[in-house]
Design goal:
The protein is built from 23 helices and 16 strands. The chain is α/β, with parallel strands linked by helices. It has 3 domains: 110 residues, Phosphohistidine domain (Glucose Oxidase, domain 1), CATH 3.50.30; 110 residues, PtsI, HPr-binding domain (Enzyme I, Chain A, domain 2), CATH 1.10.274.10; 305 residues, TIM Barrel, CATH 3.20.20.
C-alpha cells in the first residue's frame, strides 16, 4: 500500500531504494515453547544463524580494510566477531533451547540479559560500555533468525537505482559518520532536528535525509521500496509506478544540475560589482579534504576534529592526531586550514570520553560540559590536541579555532595553554609555525560582548547552528520544537550582523561556518550583511558560489539594512526571498 510521511528536510536530493531498518530487533522477539521433537531442528537453526551472522561480520571486515575506511570500523567488527565466537553467549542459548525448550530468539534474549546484567556490575566504565556491543551482536543474530539479514556489503555493489535507505528511530552523529564507508543512499529517522550533527553529517555525505518523521520506523518494513525527497522532507513508501517514474526523472534532473554546477569550480568567487568572497569547506574527517579541493574551496574553514574521537575506545594520541591534521594540510597545499579544537559533549558523544564530557545523559547536555569548557577542565587532554595541531602547522597554513567561548577568562586560559603547548614543543624540539587563534561566536553572550574577542584573538567564525539554539532556547536536536528553530528570527539576524560589523570595524576577519553559510537561499542575505567569508560542506559550495556570482553586494547592503529593521518574521522571510 502506498503512503507518504513528512518530516524535516535536512539534506537535499532524491534517493530511491529499499528500506534497511536499523532496528532494535529485541522489541520484536517472539516467545514460544518448542515440542520435544523440534528441539534438535531449533538448535540447528540457531547454529546456522550464528554462522550467517559471523559471515556477515567477515564481509564487513573486508570492507573495513578498504583504504579510506575509518580505522575504528575494523576494530568494532573484530570485537563483534570475538563476542559472537564466545561460548558464554552461544552455549547458554543452546542450553536454554535444550533444557527449557525455548525458541532460539527468546533464548538468545534471555541469555543476553544474563550476560549484560553482569556487565552492569563492573566498576570499570570501559567494560560496562561493552554491554552495548553485546546487544548489537545479539541483534545481528536475531535479525538473521527473524529472516531479516541485510547484507550491506552486497548492497554496496547493487545498481545505482537500488539505493540502500536506512530507516531508524534515531541515529547519533557517531552512527552517521560510519555511512562514509558504507554506500548508503539516504536515511530517515523518527527523531532529530535540522541542525543536529546527524543532519550535518548527512549534508557532508551529500545523501538525501529526512528527520523527525515520528512513525517511519514502525510503519516501514525491511525491503519496502522508498523514495526519500530530502529537499521537500517527504518519504513515499511503496510508490505507484507513475510516481516512481516522476521521481526518477527528477533525480536525473538534479544530477544534471549538479554536474552543470561543476563548471563553476574554476570560476572566481566574485560578485557582479567586483567583491571577492571566500568560500571555505567544512570537514569532519581527513578524507573529506579531497572533496574540498575538488570543488575548489579556498581552504578549510571548519575541521570538526571531534569526529576523530568517535566510534573508538581509546582516544587518538598526539601522533595520530598530528598525522590526521597534517594529511589535511598536505591535501590542501598552500590553502588555509582552520582546525577547530575538540567540540565534544552534548549529542556529540565519544565512547572514550563518556564519563568525562557532558553527554546526552547529563541534566542539560547542550548547556553542560562541552567544547572548550570540557577542554579547559581536562588540560592534559587539550594539550595533546594543541601540540598535534601546532606540529602540523609546520607543514602548511593552519589556524586554530576555539568553540563555545563565552567568558574572557576562557579566552585567557586557552591562550595560556596554547603558549604552554608551544613551550613543550620547543623543549621536545618539535617544529611549528605561527598559528592564528580564532573564536567561534555561537553563544549570544559572546556576540553581545565581543570586546575580549576583538582584543585577544585573530579572527572570528560565527557558528549559527548553536547561536540560533542558544538565542531561541531551542534544542537543535529536538524534532518537537524544530518548527521554532528559525535562522531568520530578528534576534538571530541582529546578533549575526552586529558581529560581522564589529569585527570589520577593527579589521578582524570574520566568517560564518554554521549551516546558514551553506544555504543558497541565505547567501544574498549574508552578503548584504557584509559577510565575505563563508564556510560550508563541499557539497553546498558550488550552489553558494553561483549565488555569489549573481549578486550585487552594494545593492544588497542597502536592501538588507532595511530587512534588519523589520521585526515581523513573515515580512522578513518575504523580503529575504525577494533578494
Ligand atoms: C555551529 O554551531 O554553527 C557550528 C558550526 O558548530 P557545530 O555545528 O559543530 O556545533
Ligand atoms: Mg557549534
Amino acid at each position: 500500500m502506498t503512503f507518504s510521511l513528512h518530516g524535516q528536510a535536512v539534506s537535499g536530493g532524491i534517493a530511491i531504494g529499499r528500506a534497511h531498518l536499523v532496528s532494535h530487533a529485541m522489541l520484536e522477539v517472539a516467545q514460544y515453547q518448542l515440542r520435544e521433537r523440534d528441539v534438535a531442528g531449533e538448535l540447528m537453526r540457531f547454529d546456522r544463524a550464528v554462522a550467517t551472522a559471523s559471515a556477515e561480520l567477515g564481509s564487513l571486515r573486508s570492507e573495513a580494510s578498504v583504504p579510506g575506511a575509518p580505522a575504528e570500523l575494523s576494530a568494532f567488527v573484530d570485537l563483534h566477531a570475538m563476542i559472537l565466537a564466545d561460548p558464554v553467549l552461544t552455549d547458554g542459548v543452546r542450553e536454554l533451547i535444550r533444557e527449557r525448550r525455548c525458541n532460539a530468539e527468546w533464548a538468545m534474549v534471555q541469555q543476553m540479559q544474563q550476560v549484560v546484567d553482569q556487565f552492569d556490575e563492573f566498576e570499570d566504565a570501559y567494560l560496562r560500555e561493552r554491554k552495548q556491543d553485546i546487544v548489537q551482536v545479539v541483534e545481528r543474530v536475531l535479525r538473521v533468525l527473524q529472516g531479516k539479514a541485510r547484507k550491506l556489503a552486497r548492497r554496496k555493489v547493487a545498481a545505482v537505482d537500488d539505493d540502500l535507505i536506512v530507516v531508524a528511530n534515531d541515529l547519533s552523529p557517531a552512527d552517521t559518520i560510519q555511512f562514509k564507508s558504507l554506500k548508503i543512499g539516504g536515511f530517515v529517522t523518527d527523531l532529530g532536528g535540522a541542525t543536529s550533527h546527524t543532519a550535518i553529517v548527512a549534508r557532508s555525505l551529500a545523501i538525501p535525509a529526512v528527520v523527525g518523521m515520528q512513525h517511519a520506523r514502525s510503519l516501514i518494513q525491511d525491503d519496502d521500496l522508498l523514495i526519500v525527497d530530502g529537499t521537500r522532507g517527504v518519504l513515499i513508501v511503496d510508490p505507484a509506478t507513475g510516481v516512481l517514474d516522476e521521481y526518477r526523472l527528477r533525480r536525473t534532473e538534479l544530477q544534471l544540475d549538479r554536474s552543470k554546477l561543476k563548471r563553476l569550480v574554476t570560476g572566481r568567487s566574485r560578485t557582479l560589482d567586483g567583491e571577492d568572497v571566500e568560500l571555505h569547506a567544512n570537514i569532519e574527517l581527513p578524507q573529506d579534504a579531497e572533496r574540498a579541493k575538488e570543488v575548489g574551496a579556498d581552504g578549510v574553514g571548519l575541521f570538526r576534529t571531534e569526529f576523530l574521537f568517535m566510534n573508538r575506545d581509546e582516544l587518538p594520541d598526539e601522533d595520530e592526531q598530528f598525522e590526521a591534521y597534517r594529511s589535511v594540510v598536505k591535501t590542501l597545499g598552500d590553502k588555509l586550514v582552520t582546525i577547530r579544537t575538540l567540540d565534544i559533549g552534548a549529542e556529540k558523544e565519544a565512547r572514550a570520553l563518556r564519563n568525562r564530557a557532558g553527554n546526552r545523559s547529563a541534566p542539560n547536555p547542550a548547556l553542560g560540559l562541552r567544547a572548550i569548557r570540557f577542554c579547559l577542565a581536562e588540560p592534559q587532554l587539550f594539550l595533546v590536541q594543541l601540540r598535534a595541531i601546532l606540529r602540523a602547522s609546520h607543514y602548511g597554513r593552519i589556524r586554530l579555532l576555539v568553540p563555545m567561548l563565552a567568558h574572557a577568562q576562557e579566552i585567557e586560559q586557552t591562550l595560556a595553554l596554547i603558549e604552554l603547548a608551544k613551550l613543550q614543543l620547543r623543549e621536545s624540539r618539535h617544529k611549528f609555525s605561527t598559528v592564528e587563534v580564532g573564536g567561534m561566536i555561537e553563544i549570544p553572550a559572546a556576540a553581545l560582548s565581543l570586546g575580549p574577542f576583538l582584543r585577544r584573538l585573530d579572527f572570528l567564525s560565527i557558528g549559527t547552528n548553536d547561536l540560533i539554539q542558544y538565542t531561541l532556547a531551542i534544542d537543535r536536536t529536538d524534532g518537537s520544537v524544530a518548527h521554532l528553530y528559525d535562522p531568520l528570527h530578528p534576534a538571530v539576524l541582529k546578533l549575526i550582523s552586529q558581529t560581522i560589523q564589529s569585527a570589520q570595524r577593527v579589521g578582524m576577519p570574520v566568517a560564518v561556518c554554521g549551516e546558514m553559510a551553506g544555504d543558497p537561499k541565505l547567501t544574498k542575505l549574508l552578503l548584504g550583511m557584509g559577510l565575505r567569508q563563508f564556510s560550508m560542506h563541499p557539497s553546498q559550495l558550488l550552489e553558494v558560489k553561483q549565488q555569489v556570482m549573481m549578486a550585487d553586494a552594494t545593492q544588497l547592503a542597502i536592501r538588507v539594512a532595511r530587512i534588519l529593521k523589520l521585526d515581523e518574521p513573515d515580512k522578513i522571510s518575504e523580503q529575504v526571498e525577494k533578494l
